[in-house]
Hints:
DNA-binding transcription factor activity, ILR3-like, 66 residues, coiled coil, signal, mainly alpha
Amino acid sequence: MITLPFHHNCDSLVWVASVLSSVLTQLKTEAQELEESNESLKETIKGLKMEKNELRKEKMKLKADK
């Protein structure tokens, strides 16, 4: 627990609480954006893996046709 010297008044504590609340809100927003970005990247990777598998199948078919 953080203790402040007695000379700090209530306004200072309110200001600190306000700043901390703003920082927390910003961090929550950034975390949500990162989660969304992560999901998007996972979907992109999934699509690329499917495409890679299709290309492998096509390559094997072309080799077999030679």
